[in-house]
Amino acid sequence: MENTLDHQQIQDFIQQGFVRIDRAFSTSLAEACRTILWADTGCDPNDPTTWTSPVIRLGNYDQEPFRQAANTPRLLNAFDQLVGPGQWQPLTSLGTFPIRFPSPVDPADTGWHIDVSFAMEDDDPTDFLSWRANVVSKGRSLLMLFLFSTITENDAPTRIRVGSHVDIARQLEPAGEVGLSLRELAANGFDETADLPEVLATGEAGTVYLCHPFLVHAAQPHHGIHPRFLAQPPLLPAHPFQLERANGHYSPVEQAIRLALRLA
Fold it and tell me: Keyword annotations for this protein (predicted)?
């Protein structure tokens, strides 16, 4: 089949830290998944008076429509292009769904962050701020945003700081294999990325954003009309990333880190 991403899209991923794939999965699959999610929210999709919380978080979903949405040929090919064939684990579920509702209430979860991916043996696994990332992105190959509803600028789209993965790679390098905790990374509010351009992860239902694991991003309050359905699963590695190889062949994720560290 034809590659999902062209050369320019891969270069944009390396430089900017993300790529948007339109029609990554069908709107009919998105609708089937929303039906399941609506039932689990306990809310009535036709009665906004039942939407009493600004955000409802639902757990892993591995039913057939979710698995189909996560494993379309377009997405599988894009994973190969960005991470490398045989270098990632197949998606069997879609992680947590933070479903956001129109609300004047502050959801209290809109801080800038990266998605950390591992904990040390002595860390409290329930303390999410103690979870860590390191320069080879142990435990995570991609950050992904799956849009299961159409998301406009008013529908609480994820905010993305373009090129922020470069700053994070440089911050992580001196910490070596142990890396830094989210508490350490966020100590200054990610101020080193504050002047970067910001993009909103908008799109039709079925859109997927594939992001570098170091990309700084944030949620925001919902000021629109229709609830926002989005999944944010990690793509897990089958093998650790490497920044030095004898053959000189690197995936785009690795290339981005190497460029940030001036290894390339």
Answer: Dioxygenase, Oxidoreductase
Instruction: Assign 30 to helix, strand or coil.
Output: helix
Q: Which two tokens stand for residue 70?
A: 């996560």
Name the least confident of 40-44, 121-125, 235-239, 248-252. Answer: 121-125
Long-range contacts of 23-26 (CB under 8 A, 24+ apart): 23/74, 23/204, 23/206, 23/207, 24/72, 24/74, 24/75, 24/78, 24/146, 24/206, 24/207, 24/208, 25/68, 25/69, 25/70, 25/72, 25/74, 25/75, 25/146, 25/206, 25/208, 26/69, 26/206
Name which of 1-5, 48-52, 97-101, 201-205 the model is least confident about. 1-5
Read off the pLDDT of residues 116-138 as tens digits, 9 standing for 90 and up. Answer: 999 988 877 788 899 999 999 99
Torsion angle defined by CA atoms of residues 211, 26, 98 and 118, in that order, rounded to the nearest 10 degrees: -40
Contact call for residues 156 and 222 (beta carbons, < 8 A): yes
Residue extents of the structural domains in the chain:
7-260
* pTM tops 0.90, yes or no: yes
Show the CA angle centred on residue 149, arms to residues 51 and 97, nearest 5°.
65
What are the angstrom distances between the C-alpha of 30 and each of 35, 67, 147, 160, 262?
9, 11, 8, 23, 41
